[in-house]
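Reminder to self: keep the SMILES exactly as supplied, no canonicalising. Ligand is zinc ion.
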Amino acid sequence: MQCTHKNIKTKKVSKEIFDMTFEAFTSICNDCGAILRDSAYERKYMHWLEEIYKTRRDKFQTQCHFSKNIIRCAETYLIDYPGISPTVFMRALVTIYFNVIDRDEKKSTRLESLLDHEILKSFTNDKDRKKVNIQFKPNMMIELVAVSEFLEMSTSAVVEEVVVKLMTVITSHDQKLREYWENEIRGYLDMFLKAA
Ligand SMILES: [Zn+2]
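Structure tokens returned for the bound complex:
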């Protein structure tokens, strides 16, 4: 039978993230040991992250390597968005992917079915690569950490995969992928880049 967490006590718990330790009191179930992170705990955690964000931006960066072809495609796309750098653009793509596509099973399944895996592979296997550091906001970064722990991949690998996927959509001449781009991504991207 599943525990209903009726027998609660308050205990200090710690969490390791970015090679640092966050510690705070929260509710713990005495019976099953589940950590019931309440809103006070979540607020403290976000506050702690915001403070680290102020002084240790490097902790919120992913060091990626992209095919120079991908970077060139990004630069070409950004001709219509003066002042936006490819790294800001890539951050936008990743944020949109996790907030719009990945959360919606219909959208993510459709994307997977439309993607041209040959083009995807050509971007992924390209040896001519350049290092790109992408900076994320605290809440996006903790989501990335959670996803990468779940997938047992590094955060950089997760970011690389998402960027390559969406760049494949952008550069595609396939009618259905073009429509997917226009209907599902374009509006969010314009909004994001205008705010950047
Ligand atoms: Zn319990």
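Points to follow up:
The longest strand covers residues 8-17.
Residues 179 and 185 are 10 Å apart (CA to CA).
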